[in-house]
Amino acid sequence: MIQKKICMIGAPSVGKTSLVARYVYSLFSEKYLSTVGVKIDRKDVRVDGQDVTLMLWDLAGDDEYQPLKPSYLRGAAGYLLVADGTRQETLDHALDLHWRVTRSVGTIPFVLVLNKSDLAGQWEIDPAQIKPVAEDRWRVLRTSAKDGSGVEVAFSELARDILRPGQDRRTIPDPA
Amino acid sequence: MNQTPQSEAGDGPEPSKPATQADELGAIRDLLFGEEKRQLDGLQERIEDPGLHAQDVGRVLPQAVTLATTENENLGAALVPAVETALKDSVKRNPARLANAIFPIIGPAIRKSISDTFSRLVQSLNQTLGHSFSPQGLRWRLEAARTGKSFAEVVLAHTLIYRVEQVFLIHKETGLLLQHVTAPHIRHEDAGVVSGMLTAIRDFARDSFQVSTAEALQTLQVGELNVWVEDGPQATVAAVIRGQAPLDFRTALQGAIEEIHALHGAQLEAFDGDAAPFETTRPILEPCLQIQFAEGTPGGKSPALPLLLLLLVLAPLAFWIAQSTVTGRRWSAFVEHLRSEPGIVVTTADRRDGQFVVGGLRDPLAIDPASLLEEFKLKPDKVSGQWEPYQALLPEFILKRSEALLQPPSEVSLEVQDGRLIIRGRAPGSWIAHALAQAPLLAGVHAIDATGLVNDTLAALASLQRQIEQEVLFFESGLTLKEGQEARLASLAGGIRSLELGARQTGRRPQVTIVGHTDASGSDDQNLRLSKMRADHVATLLASRGLPQELLESIGVGAREPLAPDATETEPTRHRRVTFRVRWLEEAVP
Ligand SMILES: Nc1nc2c(ncn2[C@@H]2O[C@H](COP(=O)(O)OP(=O)(O)OP(=O)(O)O)[C@@H](O)[C@H]2O)c(=O)[nH]1
Ligand SMILES: [Mg+2]
User: Fold this and answer.
1) Nearest CA to CA, how far is B243 from chain A (Å)?
2) What is the ipTM, given to two decimal places?
């Protein structure tokens, strides 16, 4: 059986842990327990007829006290870049993290998710904002760890990208 | 002997009195008991003569042995020393004979004995645990009841010095699990997750304390468990140990990770998430599942230690046996298949030091044995081939070889019949020349039949020649060509050039003779001169279109070759013309 390491990356409290909990255990909790260090879970899936085990590394949200550790990224086959759709700044944060990841491990498959889509009333991210990255053929999806929408798709899109490398995937040029 | 009394009785003509008395007694005795005495004497003789006695015993022996064994067991016991001596003697004289005789039963016997020992050990282990009602045993029972652990677990906890419960083989970069072995009856968490967490914890420690990669965290302690880690360049081995392992266990771990790198270096390098190639590291990791009990404790004396040691020894052995029988079966199937492959003659198929060797003769056109390995699930690095090239004389191979060497064009078909190569179809002359030169050199070809083969080049040349020879260029008068004739020169020049090129392949060279003609008016002399001039003129025109001079020659025939004998005067311009003839010159092809 093929195993792949996948990292959950994003600002604190965007819902990385909740997305994993929803995906692996079909559970959701309103309680916020900030992740310290890293927590690993596994999920066996079938993608396009191929069985694969995803080892999901749920990393602590990146901030000045607990900055993203490059050593946790080593050997990752791909990552889920998570932003909180109700907080504009988490998207900017996610884009910044994307550059840091790419610098550290090179270009590997990833999917950008705008989480908490169930909170439509508080949505802050205007479609025009994600248009440039979507046009650059990033995979961008809306998810909700709470009601489960988009979660399954986000992970399986990522897994598919990992297993079928070389399909339409580009990154935006480094702004730095 | 039995004649003596009779002869004594009949041979004494004058017997003395006492003698007579004795004789009479003898005679009476003889009369009364003669028959019985003779029988007694006979019996005595049978008993005393070893040969006769042996015959008698031999007659009843099988029956006697059967009787003796069914009725009591003494015979068996009595025979033991004799049989033992006999076996000893037999082994001394020719060990091979006995070995051959017992060979078929020795494997099953060993297997049976191992499984017997096993079940007896398990049983007595259970008994030891079950009956240990010593004060200490009672205390442990209480502890078991209190903690909710099984009694066996508590005993183990008190008597164990250390036990390696799990061994992980982890891919260093990704933290993904390559292999995991556990001691029997060990409950454990998802090994893949543990493997990842272990990697993450070590990454964390390394980052947090800013140490170099070489000084990675090598020991972790979690409650009663110790985790010992040994790193190789690409993989890490981690052992989960209950209790205190001796320092030299670290050497064992180092040895294991070194061996794994030595055997699987390339696979570690290429690792992309597929752990299947590391299934074979089990026999390296399993010996790391060591266990040691404290001496003098029930655990130490109990058969658990030998049992577990036996387990440790048997597990890799069983694995190896299973593995090698499966591989062995695949191997035989593979060799069988090779034997049935045309163009392959298997002369050796052997197993040396875990390496399979197959060899023999192989036609270079036969299937490559290595390409079949995958189908038979054999690892290419375990199988080596030693093939001597030879040329198979099967018709299909002669055919394949012919096709490879001759490379017939699409319109040619080859066939092999009783060593005869039959070539049919159409082909350019150049190919035919090449084929006829090469074919006799083919192994297995004794004769060549090319009667069904049409030379395309010759056919094409003949038709070109016909076209050229039908060509006529007409003159108005003198050296002036009729209108439209000039244009035909171009296609004529092209035709001649093709003829020349095509002919090269056949080893010949065409010579085009331009023949000038005139009408019948005027003198012969004049006409000859004029006709030659016309021919020369056309030759010059052709040469100016790039035809080599030496291809062309010109002659004049005046009016000697009229178009039609009766048409001489009807239309003079029809006779003012040049015609063409083609001659062939043999030329050695360079
Ligand atoms: N309504 C809603 N709440 C969510 C969703 N996902 C996460 N949450 C809530 O957001 C909070 C943070 O979620 P976590 O999953 O712990 O976030 P995280 O990204 O793992 O945070 P760190 O580990 O600190 O980086 C929790 O209170 C969750 O209940 C969602 O899709 N919808
Ligand atoms: Mg978290």
Assistant:
1) 27
2) 0.84
